[in-house]
Write a structure and sequence with these properties.
single chain; alpha/beta; four-stranded parallel sheet; 50% helix
Amino acid sequence: MRPDEIPDAVEAAHRLIGPLVLETPFRHSPHFSRVTGADVYLKLESLQVTGSFKARGASYKVARLSAEDRCKGVVTASSGNHGAGSAYALARTGTKGIVFVPNITPRVKIDAIEAYGAEVRFHSDDGGEAEIFARAYAAEHGLTYISPYNDPDIIAGQGTAGLEIDRQLGDRPLDILAVAVGGGGLISGVAGYLKARRPGLRVLGISPVNDHALAKSVEAGRVVEHTDAKPTLSDGTAGGIEPGSITLPLAAALVDDWVLVTEDEIRDAMRQFIARESMLLEGAAGAAIAGVLKRAKEQPSAFRAKSVAILICGARIDLKKLASVVG
């Protein structure tokens, strides 16, 4: 998949999954506008069905499966949100599925997967290793494997959030887009669509200092193991990148600036969002906000009077983590 192929793919995905997902709010934030000096908008995928953007890509991928493949069943791997999105899509079509999750997956995300009827199995403490195992399991048993990010259909489905941003902005400008990055499916789809529609858009890819496999791989020019990864509040972006992932060259082409944020920066951003926006968010969404706050402080002239969109990617957070944030 090339960057110039993304807009048409996103348009096709939008036509198919319109009845299956929500058009989420795109809301101006007076608080984050004031503290950054920019005109900040929040794309609230935290209010999407299943509580995250992942329902978009999964719904599109499952909708495109043949009747034969649906009958056989589906396998996927997930740190939680993709699993819930896939389980939702499978339930809508009466398809059976197995979701392999890392052992460290928060209970709240496991509950979300099981609530839609998918079977949860555990493998490894690392999302990347769970993906490799799940793909091999699917091949061995003749089942369809759905990658959380390494699939053109997944990227196109996630990109529909960017299509909505473009339409919701209308004639208003957009100068900066900020997206938390795990495997890269979301930022590839959204940035690929919006950059084609809005030339000059600057894209920030934001990951935790503790676990930033794709940023590290882009820097190296190849998929590398992130062997020194540590636990992070941003569990939705945690884990390694599948060898040969199509998101590596896409992210390299589409992301203008990589921002790495500390756990304290993520925690502070989450506190501000919860207090000022009166909503919950998960750590990955907090990371996206933290990246904007960090760059706005470091480069105030680059943000002053600019229009900024922050993708609030999800809302599901483990209660213990939430307590550590607000306590």
